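Memo to structure team: turn this sequence into structure tokens by end of day. - J.P.
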Amino acid sequence: MRVYLKELRMNKNLSVEQMAQLLNISQSHYYKIESGVRNPNFLLAGKIASLFDCSVDEIFFGNELDKTSNFFGAERVI
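Reply from structure team:
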């Protein structure tokens, strides 16, 4: 699941240290989020999404959204 977050970070040529500084959190905290050990709170998830100019869903769920697009018979609207 968090592979998308790591890929986004690496595509922007940012280190874990740089991400932590941008988000004003410790490197350890950021690494735990990226590796899936911890979940970010709502505010932090929004900051991360804004750094990559995409939605929280795209970062933290990626392809998993496609699997649920027909959840309860409803189509996903983007």
